[in-house]
């Protein structure tokens, strides 16, 4: 029979003893044989057991207990009687011996203290003075003079360690825990009965409690108590653990099992802070409504009207609740939903003697006792209730347990008095402060010879009896443990820093209070301490502070700072420091942040800075440093911020900076640095680069793509902007003004995704802007002034908003204002970029006539020579048409004159023959082609399309080629024919299947061309469709490589449209005509060859297609939009991974589904996407591609984007995907990922 278990939670308490501690556990209903007590591996106790409840129901017990540190589980004794388990744990002998020694020391200390109070009652105030005097004296024994300090620095450090070790040998160093910090704060906030903490103190406690975690009080959610989901039968028992209790406040933790209730209870005259540490509970609270107005009459003397403040559920972690004596919900009730732990801080605590006793209440609806059980005005008041005092002693069960969390170090029992008290260690610290004031006036300032006893609250008797009292004090000092928050040597170091800085006004408090670690942070002085040492020192003076006196020494300053061994952050700004930065800064090996800006430091930056291996931030702005930037700075492994602006540094930036991988901010503005910048593209974390007002140049810096702020203002950069600037998708601030940039202005900078600030003023950018150009909506500042720009100012830059500024003066825009130059000015200046003559040279009439004559003679000779050359050329070309039937005209592309190629001047001159990795274009003989294809055998046949048959061939050098055979329907005009062949030879691009050469076959009768052979490079990795939808078995392209392939197709189309004038349009783009090479580079294999333009003209101008252009005139007008629509179909198949048959109805159906998926959320959108790429694509990247695809498929040609717009969006999608891929845990490890079973294609035919 299966058992049904219910968890049992026992009540327990620890009974402390001298020789042993005893754990008493109440186990009602249990018998001895049902209980098992054992020690776990961690040295704790575990009590387990079970007993029947009746039927199949059983109680199960499993409870863990933490053993006190001074006890051992070895030799424990277990006894069970009267349903109570007693576990006795003996105390450790070593601990006992140490406690005995400590008790003896305390007894001696008390006796000597009493003797001191008897014979010298006022001299007790000199105890901290003697401590400080002894430490200072020992330190001064090895203190060298200012001139000899560096020689004896080692001896001084040794002496300092000896003093510290001698005085602090018995000091127990303890870390300030969160509960300790809360306790100290409560001591300073709660002043006793009848007082309410000030608002600032309340905020401080509220902040500390909000940061409290269960672990801070020794709790863990893994405890069995917090894992229970059901309560035991009967009334759930509530337990509590008192952390501390004194006259002014108490701290307690309440543990509530599920369904446990603490009834409504008040806190008379008390301020309460409640923090839910673990679990969920319902809280309901009231405040008394006084005085009782006429509209709220009291029906009975036992009832009292209260206003509902809170009625909600809370789940940890949550904010701290604050209850004031008369507000905030001073009367509240807790109902546990799950096992809970609540930390309560009460000030003052409950006390019957002080009239702070607890009272319990029961609440009744307001309607129940209002006007004879009727509501007022027919409306029930849900905001009020009647509270009735009740007695809960019969059913409210609370058991006290021992607090086993982090102990409070400064809570001791006053065995002399009759009650416990809290000894405030802050008094010791205050006496220490007074002693240091006295010490400083005695020793730090030698010119002060007398002691003003009344100033330091020291009576004359104490001053006159030093010799008699110090004898007794010396005995006390041997046994008194060190209680300083800051080591004396560090206190003295700060005092000496104050003297070295000539006692600045911002450090005036240091003259009267040396409790440095208790200072509140402010904009001028901040001191952070950790474990009795200073870790951060921030001092900021007046920005106009003059240089310090001539006696100041940077060497002495850093020698003093060396006595702060744990210093991590050093900020000394606007203090008038002067002199060279000493190399001894390297001795402060713990430094992570150094800021010494706005001072008078000069000389070279010491190379020893590179020894600070932990240095993360170095700021030396607004000084007078000179020389070069140290090359060794590039070897700092953690440097992320380097700012050296407004100095006199010169020379180039070291190449070692290219290896500063963590560098995020580099500011070098307002120096005299020059030369080329090193390659910073490998600095993937660089976000800010400020090089303003230097002499860098001429090349634009090579940067990573994460740059956010780029300031190159007032340098010597020249040339055009690189294309990589358009890929800085995080760039927000770009300032390249007042340089020597030339060339077309990239208008895409206006629409960068994150751009807010753009300034290109003071350059020589050219180009025409259009009103229809787009801008980023977040663009706030644009300065285009003093360039050579023409056209119209984009509409997006014209705004009446005060938040947007657009400057464009001194250009040649078509505007109504008079700030623009005439158009001829920009045209003339563009011819001689940047060269504007200030004076016109006056040439005499005779010289001018001579120059005109000479130039006329030269041009005449050239013209006559050209006529003779072309006449001879024409005569030699006539016999070429009289060759036999099998002869081939071998005309290389370079063999035609420029006169026969009027359109060749429009070819992009940047495309060179050898840079694509393919051999130069040449002519082939028919014999070569027949040998390559085995006489055009059927085994070499690859297929046939609208542009002829395709054969695969192998040339004599072993290279594979594809040969297209075109049968011409009519004899072309010879001049146009040669012109088209020349143009084809220039169509060589990275994303086109480039032509390698051509060959002719002539008719026998009239020697006209019968067939044209065009030889292309062979691409062997299949089509784009075979790598996506049809699928190479087991593999398919990832999303990253799909975007890359789409970008390649777009770049190929861009070249076809703009690579020549007129461009090649209506290229019948299909995904099957896009091939992939061995590097997965997409290449368009079929495009509208010029040789077929006249032959295929009628076919291109008639018929309908899915592109939406049916009329011939419309197709002629929007020829470029046909390819955009075909590109949209290709993108659609890339996204879905399903073959799409070319049919307008099918495309429209898929287009509607695409539009719905874009509007849906991320999960619904993924249902439209190829399942292969779902887990390896960024949603933002995918959505960007889907949106541009939808625009490409627009029915109206005018609504389709330009090819440049498509390219920009795809590149942006690729960048987003790349950034996402770096931080995701995608399983992609190669360009190809395992594919799922292929989906059924859309089987609708054209």
UniProtKB/TrEMBL annotation:
Keywords: Dioxygenase, Glycoprotein, Iron, Leucine-rich repeat, Membrane, Metal-binding, Oxidoreductase, Receptor, Repeat, Signal, Transmembrane, Transmembrane helix. It comes from the Eukaryota. Its cofactor is Fe(2+). SUPFAM superfamilies: HSP20-like chaperones, L domain-like, Protein kinase-like (PK-like), RmlC-like cupins. Residues 3-107 form the SHSP domain. It is a single-pass type I membrane protein. The chain crosses the membrane at residues 101-119, 848-872. The keyword Transmembrane applies. One of its GO terms (biological process) is detection of hypoxia. It catalyses: L-cysteine + O2 = 3-sulfino-L-alanine + H(+). Residues 1225-1246 are annotated as: Disordered. It is found in: Membrane. Residues 936-1212 form the Protein kinase domain. Its EC number is 1.13.11.20. InterPro entries: A-crystallin/Hsp20_dom, HSP20-like_chaperone, Kinase-like_dom_sf, Leu-rich_rpt, LRR_dom_sf, LRR_Rcpt-Like_S/T_Kinase, PCO/ADO, Prot_kinase_dom. The keyword Membrane applies. GO terms for molecular function: ATP binding; cysteine dioxygenase activity; metal ion binding; protein kinase activity. It is an enzyme of class 1 (oxidoreductase). GO terms for cellular component: membrane. Belongs to the cysteine dioxygenase family. PANTHER family: LEUCINE-RICH REPEAT-CONTAINING PROTEIN DDB_G0281931-RELATED (PTHR48006), REPEAT TRANSMEMBRANE PROTEIN KINASE, PUTATIVE, EXPRESSED-RELATED (PTHR48006:SF84). This is cysteine dioxygenase.
């Amino acid at each position: 029979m299966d058992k049904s278990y219910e968890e049992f939670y026992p009540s327990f308490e620890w009974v402390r003893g001298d020789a042993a501690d005893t754990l008493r556990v109440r186990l009602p209903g249990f018998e001895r044989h049902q209980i098992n007590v054992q020690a776990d591996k961690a040295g704790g106790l575990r009590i387990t057991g079970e007993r029947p409840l009746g039927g199949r129901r059983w109680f199960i017990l499993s409870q863990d207990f933490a053993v006190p540190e001074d006890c051992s589980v070895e030799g424990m004794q277990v006894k069970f009687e009267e349903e109570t388990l007693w576990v006795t744990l003996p105390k450790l002998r070593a601990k006992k011996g140490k406690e005995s020694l400590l008790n003896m020391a305390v007894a001696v200390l008390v006796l000597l203290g009493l003797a001191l109070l008897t014979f010298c009652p006022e001299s007790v105030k000199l105890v901290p003075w003697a401590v400080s005097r002894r430490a200072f004296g020992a330190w001064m024994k090895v203190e060298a003079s200012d001139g000899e300090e560096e020689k004896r620095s080692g001896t001084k450090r040794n002496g300092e360690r000896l003093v510290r070790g001698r005085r602090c040998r018995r000091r127990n160093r303890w870390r300030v825990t969160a509960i300790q910090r809360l306790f100290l704060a409560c001591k300073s906030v709660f002043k006793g009965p009848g007082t309410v903490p000030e608002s600032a103190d309340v905020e401080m406690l509220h902040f500390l409690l909000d940061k409290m975690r269960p672990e801070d009080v020794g709790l863990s959610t893994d405890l069995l108590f917090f894992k229970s989901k059901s309560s035991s039968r009967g009334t759930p028992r509530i337990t509590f653990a008192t952390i501390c209790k004194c006259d002014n406040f108490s701290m307690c933790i309440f543990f509530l099992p599920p369904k446990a209730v603490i009834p409504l209870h008040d806190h008379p005259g008390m301020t309460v802070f409640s923090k839910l540490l673990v679990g969920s509970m319902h809280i309901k609270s009231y405040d008394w409504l006084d005085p009782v107005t006429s509209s709220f009459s009291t029906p009975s003397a036992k009832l009292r009207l209260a206003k509902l403040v809170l009625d909600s559920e809370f789940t940890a972690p949550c904010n701290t609740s604050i209850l004031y004596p008369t507000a905030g919900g001073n009367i509240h009730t807790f109902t546990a939903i799950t096992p809970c732990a609540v930390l309560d801080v009460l000030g003052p605590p409950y006390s019957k003697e002080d009239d702070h006793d607890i009272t319990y209440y029961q609440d009744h609806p307001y309607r129940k006792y209002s006007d004879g059980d009727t509501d007022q005005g027919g409306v029930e008041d849900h905001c009020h209730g009647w509270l009735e005092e009740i007695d809960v002693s019969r059913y409210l069960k609370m058991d006290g347990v021992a607090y086993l969390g982090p102990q409070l170090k400064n809570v001791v029992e006053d065995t002399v008095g009759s009650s416990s008290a809290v000894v405030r260690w802050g008094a010791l610290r205050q006496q220490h402060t007074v002693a240091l004031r006295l010490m400083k006036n005695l020793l730090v300032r030698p010119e002060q010879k007398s002691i003003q006893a009344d100033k330091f609250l020291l009576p004359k008797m104490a001053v006159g009896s030093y010799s008699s009292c110090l004898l007794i004090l010396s005995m006390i000092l041997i046994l008194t443990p060190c209680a300083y928050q800051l080591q004396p040597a560090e206190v003295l170091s700060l005092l000496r820093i104050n003297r070295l800085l000539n006692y600045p006004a911002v450090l005036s408090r240091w003259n009267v209070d040396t409790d440095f670690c208790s200072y509140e942070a402010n904009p001028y002085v901040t001191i952070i301490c950790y474990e009795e040492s200073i870790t951060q020192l921030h001092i900021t003076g007046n920005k106009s502070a003059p240089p310090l006196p001539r006696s100041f020494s940077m060497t002495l300053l850093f020698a003093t700072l060396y006595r702060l061994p744990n210093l991590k952050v050093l900020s000394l700004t606007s203090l008038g420091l002067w002199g060279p930065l000493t190399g001894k800064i390297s001795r402060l090996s713990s430094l992570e942040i150094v800021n010494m800006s706005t001072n008078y430091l000069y000389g070279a930056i010491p190379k020893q800075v590179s020894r600070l291996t932990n240095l993360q931030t170095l700021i030396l702005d607004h000084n007078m440093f000179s020389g070069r930037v140290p090359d060794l700075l590039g070897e700092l492994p953690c440097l992320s911020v380097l700012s050296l602006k407004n100095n006199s540094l010169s020379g180039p930036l070291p190449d070692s900076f290219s290896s500063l991988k963590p560098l995020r901010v580099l500011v070098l503005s307002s120096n005299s640095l020059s030369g080329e910048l090193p390659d910073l593209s490998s600095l993937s974390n660089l976000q800010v680069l400020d090089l303003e007002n230097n002499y860098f140049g001429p090349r634009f810096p090579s940067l990573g793509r994460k740059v956010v702020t780029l300031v190159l203002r007032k340098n010597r950069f020249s040339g055009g902007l690189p294309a990589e600037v358009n890929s800085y998708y995080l760039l927000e601030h770009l300032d390249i003004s007042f340089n020597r940039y030339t060339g077309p202005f990239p208008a895409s900078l206006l629409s960068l995704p994150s751009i807010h600030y753009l300034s290109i003023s003071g350059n020589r950018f050219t180009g025409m802007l259009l009103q229809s150009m787009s801008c980023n909506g977040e663009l706030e500042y644009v300065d285009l002034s003093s360039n050579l720009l023409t056209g119209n100012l984009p509409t997006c830059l014209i705004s009446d908003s005060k938040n947007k500024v657009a400057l464009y003066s001194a250009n040649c825009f078509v505007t109504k204002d008079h700030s623009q130059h005439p158009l001829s000015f920009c045209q003339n200046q563009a011819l001689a970029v940047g060269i504007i003559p200030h004076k016109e040279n006056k040439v005499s009439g005779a010289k001018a006539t001579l120059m005109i004559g000479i130039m006329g003679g030269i041009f005449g000779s050239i013209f006559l020579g050209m006529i003779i050359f072309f006449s001879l050329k024409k005569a030699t070309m006539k016999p070429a048409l009289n060759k036999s039937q099998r002869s081939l005209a071998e005309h290389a592309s370079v063999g035609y004159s420029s006169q026969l190629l009027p359109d060749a001047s429009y070819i992009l001159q940047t495309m060179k023959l050898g840079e694509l990795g393919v051999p130069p274009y040449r002519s082939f003989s028919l014999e070569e082609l027949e040998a390559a294809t085995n006489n055009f055998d059927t085994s070499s046949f690859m297929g046939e399309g609208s542009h002829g048959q395709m054969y695969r061939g192998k040339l004599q050098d072993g290279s594979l080629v594809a040969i297209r055979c075109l049968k011409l329907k009519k004899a072309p005009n010879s001049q146009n024919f040669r012109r088209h062949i020349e143009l084809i030879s220039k169509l060589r691009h990275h994303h086109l299947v480039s032509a390698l050469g051509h060959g002719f076959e002539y008719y026998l009768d009239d020697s006209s061309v019968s067939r044209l052979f065009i030889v292309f490079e062979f691409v062997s990795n299949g089509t784009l469709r075979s790598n996506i939808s049809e699928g190479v078995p087991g593999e398919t392209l990832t999303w990253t490589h799909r975007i890359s392939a789409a970008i390649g197709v777009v770049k190929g189309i861009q070249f076809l449209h703009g690579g020549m004038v007129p461009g090649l349009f209506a290229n019948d783009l299909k995904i099957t005509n896009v091939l992939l090479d061995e590097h997965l580079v997409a290449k368009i294999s079929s495009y509208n060859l010029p040789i077929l333009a006249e032959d295929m003209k009628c076919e291109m101008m008639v018929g309908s297609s899915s592109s939406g252009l049916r009329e011939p005139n419309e197709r002629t007008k929007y020829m470029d939009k046909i390819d955009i629509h075909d590109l949209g179909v290709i993108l659609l198949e890339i996204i879905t991974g399903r073959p799409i048959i070319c049919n307008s109805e099918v495309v429209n159906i898929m287009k509607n589904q695409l539009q719905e998926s874009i509007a849906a959320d991320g999960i619904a959108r993924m249902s439209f996407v190829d399942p292969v790429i779902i887990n390896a694509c960024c949603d933002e990247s995918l959505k960007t591609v889907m949106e541009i695809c939808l625009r490409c498929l627009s029915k109206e040609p005018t609504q389709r984007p330009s090819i440049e717009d498509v390219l920009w969006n795809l590149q942006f999608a690729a960048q987003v995907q790349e950034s996402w891929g770096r931080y995701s845990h995608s399983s992609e490890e190669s360009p190809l990922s395992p594919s799922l079973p292929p989906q059924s294609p859309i089987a609708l035919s054209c």
